[in-house]
Amino acid sequence: YLKNNSTGTYLAVDGGKDANGQAIDLWDKSEAFRVQITSDKNGYVMRFPGVSSTRVVNQYANAPVNGTKVTLYTYSGSTSQSWGFQKVSGGYIIRSMYNQNLCLTGNGSSVATVTNYTGASNQIWTLESYCTHSSTITKNVKNATCTATGLTAGSHCSVCGTVFTAQYIIPARH
């Protein structure tokens, strides 16, 4: 589960419907959905396996800006569907991999959005596990080259997808 530190609410899919464009809301835990976080070529994707196996948390629009709503959408590999997890005091900042100045923001029990990072508590999220993490997968460093980006080392649970050490992009070294 992903809990917003400011509001105490959790990510949920509006109405639990498996449809493109379905709003990602914030509700109390009784209405929340288990979030599965898995790695992709750009960072991490977030799925709600109880709702859909093919749709992911998506920044509505292929070029998200401050205030863009977060929705469910069929996975395409776009950076607007990829997220980076930055460990901070009290939890994680969940940054857009399309624009790392944008981050997942909770606004009470309304829809989730991406907004410019300000350090506000409604931009900090806690990962609440439902798994014992009995099987860990470690991803090695992928060194950057002069033409391709790399990735830092990372690890996650192979059962639930919980990220223990997030991977970050290493810029190409031209």
Folded structure, characterized:
It is a single chain. By secondary structure, this protein is mostly beta strands. It has strands spanning 2-4, 10-13, 22-27, 36-40, 43-47, 55-59, 68-74, 83-88, 91-96, 102-105, 113-116, 124-127, 136-139, 150-151, 154-157, 163-165, 169-170. The radius of gyration is 15 Å and the shape is globular. The N and C termini lie far apart (40 Å).
Alpha-carbon Rg, integer:
15 Å
Termini, distance in Å? 40 Å
Structural class: mainly beta
- SSE string, helix = H, strand = E? EEEEEEEEEEEEEEEEE
- Please count the helical segments: 0
**Approximately what portion of the residues adopt beta-strand conformation?**
35-45%
Low-confidence stretches: none
Q: What proportion of the residues is helical, as a percent range?
A: under 10%
The geometry reads as globular
Please outline the major beta sheet.
6 strands, antiparallel
What's the β-strand tally? 17
Mean pLDDT: 88
